[in-house]
């Protein structure tokens, strides 16, 4: 029997385990800042997607919109996040990080760098670069499968077009 059929040697299991252990390591570090895992994840995603809608953020964080709304309510009350009306849709708001939250983000970046360095300890720089290149290629392969190219024969695709709001940060 080959090692690829043993769950511990499965690519998906291995990637999931490494990601889970990195989250746990980072979570231990940010607890000193008084942030929950949900709060640091929301701040981290918002830092990369300022002005995003709650629906977009819920999708990226893989949580239900109502769960995220409650989290954002608490973060707004703490002064870390601001809801700003969306000028193009009166029903929607855009989310922004406040100046009060920015020092937390900087501390989170330092703690993330420590976690990353511990994770990659013992890997020489060329091996680290190769690892990132491989992971990027895998990510691109999977994204391409979510958005396969339209048939070249001029026929319409068999599935409905994908909503692109994810890529627009809205």
TrEMBL record:
Q: What Pfam family is a match for this entry?
A: MarR
In terms of domain of life, where is this protein from?
A: Bacteria
Q: Which positions fall inside the HTH marR-type domain?
A: 8-140
Keyword set for this entry?
DNA-binding, Transcription, Transcription regulation
- The segment annotated Disordered runs over 144-170
Q: Name one GO molecular function term.
A: DNA-binding transcription factor activity
Against PANTHER family, the record matches this protein to: TRANSCRIPTIONAL REGULATOR, MARR, TRANSCRIPTIONAL REPRESSOR OF EMRAB OPERON
Q: What is this protein called?
A: DNA-binding MarR family transcriptional regulator
Q: What is the lineage of its organism?
A: Bacteria, Pseudomonadati, Pseudomonadota, Alphaproteobacteria, Rhodospirillales
């Amino acid at each position: 029997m080959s090692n690829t059929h043993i769950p511990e040697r499965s690519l998906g299991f291995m990637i999931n385990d490494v990601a889970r252990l990195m989250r746990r390591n980072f979570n231990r570090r940010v607890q000193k800042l008084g942030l929950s895992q949900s709060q640091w994840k929301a701040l981290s995603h918002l830092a990369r997607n300022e002005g995003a809608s709650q629906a977009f953020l819920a999708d990226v964080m893989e949580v239900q919109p109502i769960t995220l709304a409650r989290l954002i309510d608490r973060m707004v009350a703490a002064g870390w996040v601001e809801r700003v009306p969306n000028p193009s849709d009166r029903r929607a708001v855009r989310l922004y990080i406040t100046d009060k939250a920015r020092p937390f983000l900087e501390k989170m970046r330092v703690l993330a760098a420590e976690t990353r360095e511990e994770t990659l300890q013992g890997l020489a720089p060329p091996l680290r670069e190769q690892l990132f290149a491989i992971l990027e290629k895998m990510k691109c392969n999977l994204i391409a499968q979510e958005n396969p190219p339209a048939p070249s024969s001029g026929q319409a695709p068999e599935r409905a077009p994908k909503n692109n709001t994810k890529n627009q940060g809205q």
